[in-house]
């Protein structure tokens, strides 16, 4: 049987970051879980973790220390894979900035800090922080964007960074930044004002960047292109991917290079039209996955895969629902592929394993609850008033599919996500290859749920394991922003905020902490 377990190790030393606390086993004491806790005032603290593979991890947060009138100190701490502290450094960043995007290179992390929505500063300033964990080196670059420009994509390659920015009512732009000399060049994606960037990635073999752009031709017609630009904005290559017909739209692109040098595009698409049976449907709703193969500078194939046609569709939406849709389609002389589930999905980065390219997405929806209060009218008569309160996004399923190098879908599967509500739209499920099988797992309320699949088959059904706490008498009261990530080899990291109670303590028996724990996948 394969499962996720909490790694139990004895730590060699104590970290020295302020507010940091951690238990350590003595010579004759029982072993403690490999876990670090930081006292927190609320779940809105700014603690974050970035994994660096075998180089360990970097934990960072915004402190209360003021560097000057415009800047606040952020602290960055690097730990090795056994949570031994390697170094701690601080960087002063603008008060109205927060980390928006991040990229991980071979030996360098890059964080993009941009202006928050609450900023009143008229200057659209940004900063890029590069971190070399092995050396403890931090390098800061700054720049300025056009007013109204929102950076949706960020990539870096060596000494060069690229930003993909979209501007409402104007053509999107790409910003090329020479990090060593601090030079910045901005150029438009193309002609016209209705053109936006949907994906961006630097080309590692040259000083160019590849981007997927969408040109809105009319209200119901758009063109999608794969374009390569140099640092001056000169187009070196342009390939037409698709021409939007009716309400079908491509979104959330992922791109990989195949063994023969071709480019495989994978992502989600929305179909809309009369098939969905819904009016005023959100533009980002998903009907299914698509694949597109680009070879020798041209499009070779474009395929669409409706969730309703997946082999495991019945476990996603229910067997009765599938049967009813099939009957409805038959009566109207249509195929089930002309209908849409209109899911909101969060697409994961691509994973390649055993000559397959694995695309996964999580289905989510906003969740609200109703609160009532009593008010009085002009004459003093009581009446009940109601309003909706946003609880966060509830995650329901993770859908996963395997594609070959030609973009043909070989298999599909899914796992139910239970009791997971989050304000943060970031991937919650980890897809982990293990020999000929695949593990789908996630963390929720101090438990790790895992399901083992092999292609279309479920090898082991969803099962849950409780993560150990720091002390045996600790009881988890609640958890917020909990997430699990694949770290290195068969190790994972779980982190988030937990409200913990320990009745064995005479005082301070309740605490709120930001924690991170090391987990191991075990057969």
Question: Would you mind describing this structure in some detail?
Answer:
The chain is mainly β and 523 residues long. It has a domain at 8-145. Helix content is 4%, strand content 59%. It has 3 helices and 36 strands. It has helices at residues 273-276, 313-317, 319-331, and strands at residues 3-6, 20-21, 35-39, 48-51, 57-66, 71-79, 85-94, 97-104, 109-115, 124-132, 137-145, 149-157, 160-167, 173-178, 183-188, 195-203, 208-218, 221-230, 235-243, 249-257, 263-270, 288-295, 298-306, 344-347, 351-353, 356-376, 382-403, 409-416, 421-422, 430-434, 437-444, 447-454, 457-466, 475-488, 491-501, 510-522. The strands form 8 sheets. Strands 1, 2, 3, 34, 35 and 36 form a 6-stranded antiparallel β-sheet that branches. Strands 24, 25, 26, 27, 28 and 29 form a 6-stranded antiparallel β-sheet that branches. Strand 4 (48-51) and strand 5 (57-66) form a beta hairpin. The longest helix has 13 residues, at 319-331. The chain is globular, with a radius of gyration of 25 Å.
């Amino acid at each position: 049987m394969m499962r996720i377990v909490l790694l139990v190790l004895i730590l060699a030393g104590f970290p020295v970051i302020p507010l940091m606390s951690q238990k350590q086993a003595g010579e004759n004491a029982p072993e403690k879980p490999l876990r670090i806790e930081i006292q927190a005032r609320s779940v809105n603290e700014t603690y974050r973790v970035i994994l660096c593979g075998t180089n360990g991890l970097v934990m960072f947060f915004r402190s209360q220390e003021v560097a000057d009138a415009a800047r606040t100190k952020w602290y960055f701490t690097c730990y090795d894979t056994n949570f031994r502290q390697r170094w701690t450094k601080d960087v002063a960043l603008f008060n109205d900035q927060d980390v928006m995007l991040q990229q991980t290179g071979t030996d360098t992390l890059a964080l993009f800090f941009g202006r928050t929505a609450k900023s009143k500063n008229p200057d659209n300033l940004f900063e890029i922080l590069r971190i070399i964990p092995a050396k403890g080196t931090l390098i800061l670059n700054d720049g300025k964007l056009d007013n109204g420009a929102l950076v949706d994509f960020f990539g870096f390659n060596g000494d060069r960074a690229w930003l993909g920015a979209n501007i409402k009512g104007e053509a999107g732009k790409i910003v090329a930044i020479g990090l060593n000399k601090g030079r910045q060049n901005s150029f438009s994606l193309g002609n016209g004002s209705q053109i936006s960037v949907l994906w961006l990635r630097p080309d590692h073999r040259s000083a160019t960047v590849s981007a997927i752009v969408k040109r809105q031709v009319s209200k119901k017609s758009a063109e999608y292109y794969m374009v390569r630009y140099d640092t001056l904005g000169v187009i070196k290559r342009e390939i037409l991917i698709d021409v939007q017909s009716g309400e079908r739209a491509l979104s959330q692109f992922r791109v990989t290079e195949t063994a023969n040098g071709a480019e495989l595009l994978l992502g989600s698409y929305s179909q809309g039209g009369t098939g969905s049976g819904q009016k005023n449907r959100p533009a980002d709703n998903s009907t299914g996955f698509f694949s597109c193969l680009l070879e020798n500078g041209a499009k070779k194939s474009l395929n669409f895969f409706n969730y309703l046609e997946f082999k495991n569709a019945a476990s996603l939406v229910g067997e009765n629902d599938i049967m009813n849709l099939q009957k409805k389609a038959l009566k109207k002389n249509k195929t089930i592929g002309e209908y849409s589930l209109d899911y909101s999905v969060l697409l994961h980065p691509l994973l390649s394993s055993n000559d397959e390219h694995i695309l996964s997405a999580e289905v989510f929806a906003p969740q609200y609850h109703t609160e009532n209060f009593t008010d009085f009218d002009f004459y003093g008569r009581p009446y009940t008033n109601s309003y909706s309160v946003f609880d966060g996004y509830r995650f329901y399923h993770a859908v996963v599919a395997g594609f070959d190098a030609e973009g043909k879908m070989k298999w599909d599967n899914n796992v139910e996500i239970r009791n997971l509500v989050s304000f943060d739209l970031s991937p919650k499920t980890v897809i982990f290859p293990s020999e000929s099988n695949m593990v789908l797992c996630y963390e929720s309320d101090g438990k790790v749920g895992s399901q083992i699949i092999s292609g279309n088959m479920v090898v082991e059904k969803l099962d849950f394991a409780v993560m150990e706490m720091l002390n045996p008498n600790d009881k988890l009261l609640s958890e917020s922003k909990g997430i699990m990530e694949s770290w290195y080899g068969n190790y994972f990291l779980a982190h988030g905020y937990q409200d913990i109670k320990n009745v064995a303590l005479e005082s301070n028996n309740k605490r709120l902490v930001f924690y991170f724990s090391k987990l191991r996948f075990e057969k």
